[in-house]
Amino acid sequence: MVSIQKGKFGALERLSDKNGIIAALAIDQRGSLRKMIGAAKGSGATTEELTDFKTLISKELTPYASSILLDPEFGLPAGRNRDRHCGLITSYEKTGYDAHTPGRLPDLLANWSVKRIKEEDSDAAKILVYYDKDDSKQINDVKKAFVERVGSECRAEDIPFFLELVTYDEKVSAPADYARIKPQKVIEAVKVFSEERYGVDVLKLQVPVDMSRVEGIGENEAVYSDEQAGEYFRQVDEAAKVPYIWLSAGVSAELFQRTLRFAREAGSRFNGVLCGRATWREGVKAYGEGGEEKAAEWLRTQGRKNIEALNAVLAESATPWYETYGGKERITVE
Length: 334
Known about the structure:
single chain; alpha/beta
């Protein structure tokens, strides 16, 4: 048996579809989205354009998503314009990291708290942490304490805590070389932050391999066989003691859908996705070239098609979040 706070349990239900799958749309990008819109326009993107594009995404696509991830800096109007059946996850961290300080240390938005996030009708708080198991103990202790603090805030406010883990290695720059060491970095990060002390309710994870380098699947130099890649997915599943979902990490819609099927076939009992650019990337081009009207047209056609295709794959491949604990009958709601 596992105990879950009443507020957290109810919020996880709201963030999931009728089958208990977290089919979430992500558009909490800030600096990267500003660059994408600017490139599409051929000039700098304004704050109003970031807010406008996020709101368009929310209006047009949340009828087909169980929840949406937004930031409080530019995404508040988008959150207020989401479909009434769509849950809301709010990013709590500052975007990016200080490249002049070793360790890619995280930081929170100075004028936000989990209490304030909850007051904005959000169902969950999310932070992103860059984590390298091979960093110094000093650096990783800072990150562990950081996660503990946010976990404690979320317990106090009785709201789910989503932790996004992104692995890295500052000493390895070649993509093929990093692909070889990525699986163990992801698996170790999952082991660490599945521990109860961190208070994480849902892990948002990179897939443990570079799918473009899986033999017979990817277009790049293969560094894993089909069997090796499958084994890494199984090891993530074994390491995760809380529900986990995959992030799309900017790959194409087609490759992400293929990845989900591969994960399922390998034995991954993942509980959904937080999918961003794989769903709406081309909508940025439409927005930059033709404004709101062209972007809305793209979202109503190709954007909707992308998210509905993803939902179909999730229906076949994902597992309800509560099955992580053996089913709802194994959960005690506090």
